[in-house]
Write a structure and sequence with these properties.
By secondary structure, this protein is an alpha+beta fold. The protein folds into 2 domains: 54 residues; 150 residues, 60s Ribosomal Protein L30, Chain: A. Helix content is 43%, strand content 14%. 19% of the residues are buried.
Length: 232
């Protein structure tokens, strides 16, 4: 009967194979972490700048101080953006309530760092005209008085529906919407709003908030928007 040949090397325990695999995976993982730890100063600058601006701090102007590894003092007031947004939103809601009590349709819309007061223009402007009704002007001036102390950057944007305009003065709705916005802007300047903080735009029928498929929807699209961007 043939003798059983002895094994030249003892077999490795099963647990040791698993342990070796685990160590290999850990080594690979730490090598991956180390390879990712090389920081691009350019990208680091962009990240810090984005975080600073997102939380309401001042924009970093001197990029070289970061690239050269120097200290940069970040100006982070406590929750300034959140507090500022709440205060502005409250003020706009008060203005909206005042306008609604006077019979105007309005709404406040908040999106990200932007707060918009929409004032539907059927009771503001005669059809096809860019000068507000005379009895509306005092309310616009009161609106301005309530907001001007904040000196916030304000964009006044005119919108229309898609009904073609028939006018000797305006060849299209874009011109009409721009002229309406400019006239409102002039009233704000007259009431003392900081000129440097004001801008006017016309969008015509190109940015409807609802489809122009019913008279009610077209009335919603005819509007003046007062846009405050708190990120500026």
């Amino acid at each position: 009967m043939a003798r059983k040949k002895k094994e030249e090397c003892p077999s490795v325990p099963g647990w040791l194979v698993s342990f070796g695999d685990l160590m290999s995976l850990l080594l690979t993982f730490f090598i991956l972490l180390y390879s990712m730890s090389t920081i691009s100063l350019e990208k680091f600058y962009q990240s810090i700048r984005g975080l600073t601006e997102a939380f309401g701090g001042r924009t970093l102007q001197n990029k070289e101080t970061i690239i050269q590894g120097k200290k940069v003092n970040l100006n982070f007031p406590m929750y300034p953006k959140i507090k500022k947004k709440k205060a502005v939103q409250k003020k706009l809601n008060d203005i909206k309530q005042m306008l609604e009590n006077a019979g105007f349709k309005a709404e406040v819309v908040s999106h990200g760092s932007t707060i918009t007061l929409r004032l539907f223009s059927d009771k503001i402007f005669p059809p096809g005209k860019d000068i507000p009704y005379k009895d509306v002007i005092p309310y616009i001036m009161t609106f301005c008085e309530k907001l001007k102390d904040s000196s916030l950057p304000l964009i006044i944007v005119g919108h229309t529906d898609n009904t073609p305009i028939k006018s000797k003065r305006f060849s299209n709705n874009l011109e009409l919407s721009a002229s309406r916005a400019v006239n409102i802007l002039r009233m704000f300047i007259k009431c003392g709003y900081d000129e440097k903080a004001l801008a006017a735009e016309g969008r015509g029928e190109f940015e409807p908030i609802v489809p122009n498929d019913t008279p009610q929807n077209r009335a919603k699209n005819r509007r003046i928007e007062f846009v405050i961007d708190l990120s500026v």
